[in-house]
Design a protein that fits this description.
This is YmaF family protein. The protein has 126 residues and is mainly β. The chain is built from no helices and 12 strands. It has one domain. The relative contact order is 0.20.
Length: 126
């Protein structure tokens, strides 16, 4: 089954020869796509916490969906962690738009190996 997709490729200007272009999808199966900002603070573990922020992966508008997300936390106590996963389904806003809930655990890192819990809601769709 073919699904029509539109978008464009943008040269990122990075020095990495394997990732010098980024693909931006603007529609999926005739529907515009959108992203959500997200940010938060991890749980306090092993004497510290981390901040994180990012933008979700694109998803089609007007249908039930979730978004992939990925971010690297702030550098605290000599290390960072990675967060990644999929948001929950659409949560409608009273005046239109929607957001998504997300939660999980960071990767293991630190002098004392540990993880942090995180959870939150994305911002409204962009």
């Amino acid at each position: 089954m073919d699904i029509p997709v539109t978008g464009f490729v943008f040269h990122s200007g990075d020095d990495d020869p394997h990732h010098s272009h980024k693909l931006y999808i603007t529609s999926w199966d005739g529907r515009p796509v959108h992203v959500h900002p997200f940010e938060g603070i991890t749980s306090f573990d092993v004497g510290h916490q981390h901040h994180y922020a990012g933008v979700t992966e694109s998803a089609p508008s007007g249908v039930q969906h979730s978004h992939g997300y990925y971010a690297v936390t702030s550098f605290n106590d000599g290390h960072t962690h990675t967060i990644s996963g999929r948001t929950g389904p659409v949560i409608p806003l009273p005046n239109g738009g929607h957001y998504h809930y997300f939660e999980g655990y960071t990767t293991v890192n630190g002098r004392i190996p540990h993880t942090h819990m995180y959870q939150g809601n994305t911002g409204d769709e962009e």
